[in-house]
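Researcher: For the annotation table, I need structure tokens for Helix-turn-helix domain-containing protein. Please keep the output clean. Sequence:
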Amino acid sequence: MRFIEEVVVDEFLPTYRSLLAEALRERGLTQSAVAELLGISQSAVSKYVHGEVERNERLLDHRGLAELVERIAEGLASGEMSSVQALVETEVFVRELEQGGVLARLHEEAVPELADYDGEFAVHDPDSQLRAAERTLSAVRRGLRVLENTSGFATLIPAVGSNLVQTLPDGDGIDDVAAVPGRILDVKGRATIPAEPEFGVSEHVASVVLAARAAGSPAVAGLNVRYDESVVESLVGAGHTAVEFDAEVAVEPAIADALADDPEADVVYQTGGMGVEPVVYLLGPDAVTVAEWARDVL
């Protein structure tokens, strides 16, 4: 099983970034300046401009991509375009390629079974349930990579383990929530992820996110970490809003009561109970953002 976001990461990004890095270097920017504009390391820029990254020939032949690269390189180099504007233009272009363009074709070639699918929607329809599930799983995968690359995250994993979850936009049950089967564990000081994310494999963290949503929270993603007063203080110091809930009350009414005064609070925690380990839950707009918030504690 391969999702179109993986085609974007594996095929589009290396090709696009290498072309853009070359174009910026040709306009006199240093590797350091290019790295800062693209949000990547100087070593990555070096690999791109020296041809050490494999490019997709189909994308190299795409006239629209060549035009986009030239327009963005000129805008960034001249200062007439901000990095945010460049990102927006690129995102729009990627969405077009996903919906019937070359990325859609590459995806269909990677998963030929799509051609035989007789459902009532097209897999590359951005409003389809399959696309929503694809985006959700991809977000959790990206969030897990953030956690794997966050030094010290293992120290935040509670004894029961952590999980990173994200629900479908209209999700209202456990089966609508993507998460790690078996939870994320601290194995000899390293955060260990036992398997790829799936739907319906988290009960506790998923229940907290769903309860928060039922109480009016806009959150669709969640991550649990160990409780400590300093953890909560660090999160509050970083600008988060924290509220406490009762661990000895059922999750849904406990979360509803905690969020009654501020449904948009993005940290909920409990300090333990009879046989219940104290835990902090981060609630956010997507799995990547929630994973990045863990760095506010370290």
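Researcher: And a one-line annotation?
Model: Residues 4-26 form the longest helix (23 residues).
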